[in-house]
């Protein structure tokens, strides 16, 4: 193995070499690394933050959605998600798995998620590089030879046999030259971004005071004084019920543009502090404070074009595939790409802005969905076919997480964390089979992959 690798300008030191290299340690990458390592692979996991979990931790996104069939308590994702939930429960950071299946999502504590992720990675002997950002890719003859990374140690290269792009934004695939699309066909706009807020100091507020404050906030939103898309500041989405953890902020724009991301972070924080000023003036909320604000989280950016693209019709009809490797049940949940706030929520035919929106004016009778048609059939799910994980043009790359091959409508369902964890377990298992059998990921025996997932407790 050479100790340096040549990029266009210079030779770079190789910081690590592995059989499977996973870039991104969030819901798509973490299970991929664990699954590959448990099958005996030398695995390297590259993560840009100082902890694992991605938007589950940095984004404070909770709960984990898509773990049960549509409008049902029947689990459709088990495997590593069930194990993670059980291990977080042992730390007091999640309900039991059976309890979680009775709820609309898996509630969890972000700090418990971090430590469980650390332990599972260590136990699987995954080599981990935190504080490391993938910046470029070296491709030779249609295959990735190395991913270029930047860290406090400088610019270095990581080499491997099979690579898994779990960056959420398809950064590796895009820089490798794999074809991608971004946003809806009409104008390239993707779903708007958002964030979570934790609000403490609310123990003295009565239910009547909470209701009155919500009504006042709604009136202020209707008057244009706030740019929230809902007034649910009393929402409790994570494991802990001693504070509010609402999801109500919104910001539009291209989340692969660093200036847009910068504006979003600063702008959303300013909105949150204006909310705090408002709440402090309401009876019962005099002692409230902002406990935490999350990183702004993209819902949609680049989608890799693979051998199949999951569609909104697949979500709506609960389509099944012979090469299924994961299941999804979340619906066509398109947060207004223009960032329009109250009273706008979803991009549907029933949008209250109507003809004031150029997309609605052009597409409402062609490609837009009615609210009644957003969901899979009750008690059912749609499959994620393996072909959504295999990108065109690059032979030794798999895609995991929300940047799999899917249309704007299809990814609106498949983007949630429960589905991404299932996809990640499938991607890691497929990468291991590819290495073990000396084949490209596209040529993995899907029947053997499905059996391996079933043997590991996954539902396929």
Could you explain the architecture of this structure?
The protein is an alpha/beta fold and 460 residues long. It has 2 domains: 4-183 and 381-455, 3-Layer(bba) Sandwich (FAD/NAD(P)-binding domain); 197-293. Helices cover 29% and strands 17% of the residues. Helix 1 (30-38) packs parallel to helix 11 and helix 11 packs across helix 12 (446-455).
Layout of secondary structure:
Layout: E1 4-6, E2 11-23, H1 30-38, E3 43-46, H2 79-90, H3 97-100, H4 110-123, E4 127-129, E5 133-140, E6 143-151, E7 154-165, H5 171-176, E8 180-182, E9 197-200, H6 207-222, H7 258-280, E10 289-293, E11 302-304, H8 312-317, E12 324-328, H9 358-363, E13 382-385, E14 397-399, H10 408-414, H11 417-437, H12 446-455
Parallel strand pairs: 2-3, 2-7, 3-4, 7-14
Antiparallel strand pairs: 1-2, 5-6, 6-7, 8-11, 9-10, 12-13
Helix pairs in contact: 1-11, 11-12
Low confidence ranges: none
> Into how many domains do the coordinates divide?
2
CATH class assignment of the largest domain: Alpha Beta
| Number of beta-strand segments | 14
User: If classified by CATH, what would the architecture of the largest domain be?
Assistant: 3-Layer(bba) Sandwich
Number of helices: 12
Largest sheet: 8 strands, mixed
Name the helicity range.
25-40%
Choose one word for the global shape: globular
Beta-strand content: 15-25%
Rg, Å, rounded = 22 Å
How are helices and strands ordered from N to C? Answer: EEHEHHHEEEEHEEHHEEHEHEEHHH
Mean pLDDT: 96
Distance between the termini: 38 Å
């Amino acid at each position: 193995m050479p100790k340096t690798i040549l990029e266009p300008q210079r030779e770079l030191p190789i910081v690590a070499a592995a059989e499977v290299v996973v870039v991104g340690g969030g819901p798509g990458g973490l299970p991929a690394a664990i699954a590959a390592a448990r099958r005996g692979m030398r695995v390297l996991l590259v993560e840009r933050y100082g902890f694992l979990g991605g938007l589950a931790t940095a984004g404070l996104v909770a709960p984990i959605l898509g773990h049960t069939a549509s409008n049902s308590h029947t689990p459709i994702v088990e495997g590593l998600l069930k194990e993670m939930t059980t291990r977080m429960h042992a730390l007091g950071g999640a309900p039991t798995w059976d309890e979680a299946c009775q709820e609309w999502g898996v509630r969890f504590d972000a700090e418990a998620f971090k430590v469980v992720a650390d332990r599972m990675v260590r136990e699987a002997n995954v080599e981990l590089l935190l504080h490391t950002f993938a910046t470029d890719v070296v491709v030779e003859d249609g295959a990735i030879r190395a991913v270029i990374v930047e860290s406090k140690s400088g610019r270095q290269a990581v080499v491997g046999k099979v690579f898994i792009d779990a960056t959420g934004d398809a950064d590796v695939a895009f820089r490798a030259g794999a074809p991608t699309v971004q946003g809806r066909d009409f104008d390239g706009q993707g779903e708007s971004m958002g964030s979570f807020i934790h609000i403490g100091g609310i123990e003295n507020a009565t239910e009547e005071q909470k209701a009155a404050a919500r009504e006042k906030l709604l009136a202020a939103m209707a008057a244009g004084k706030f740019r929230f898309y809902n007034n649910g500041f009393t929402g409790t989405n994570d494991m802990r019920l001693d504070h509010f953890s609402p999801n109500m902020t919104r910001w539009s724009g291209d989340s692969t543009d660093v200036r847009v991301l910068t504006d979003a972070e600063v702008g959303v924080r300013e909105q949150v502090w204006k909310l705090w000023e408002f709440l402090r003036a309401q009876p019962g909320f005099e002692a409230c404070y902002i406990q935490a604000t999350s990183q702004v989280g993209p819902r949609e950016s680049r989608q890799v074009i693979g051998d199949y693209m999951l569609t909104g019709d697949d979500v709506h009809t609960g389509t099944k595939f012979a090469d299924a490797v994961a299941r999804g049940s979340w619906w066509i949940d398109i947060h207004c790409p223009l960032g329009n706030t109250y009273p706008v929520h979803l991009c549907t035919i029933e949008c209250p802005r109507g003809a004031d929106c150029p997309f609605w004016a052009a597409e409402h009778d062609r490609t837009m969905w009615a609210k009644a048609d957003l969901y899979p059939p009750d008690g059912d799910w749609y499959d994620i076919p393996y072909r959504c994980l295999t990108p065109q043009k690059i032979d030794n790359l798999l895609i995991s997480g929300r940047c799999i091959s899917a249309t704007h409508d299809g990814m609106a369902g498949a983007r949630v964390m429960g589905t991404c964890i299932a996809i990640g377990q499938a991607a890691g298992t497929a990468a291991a089979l590819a290495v073990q059998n000396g084949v490209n990921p596209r040529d993995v025996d899907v029947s053997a992959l499905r059996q391996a997932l079933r043997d590991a407790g996954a539902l396929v």
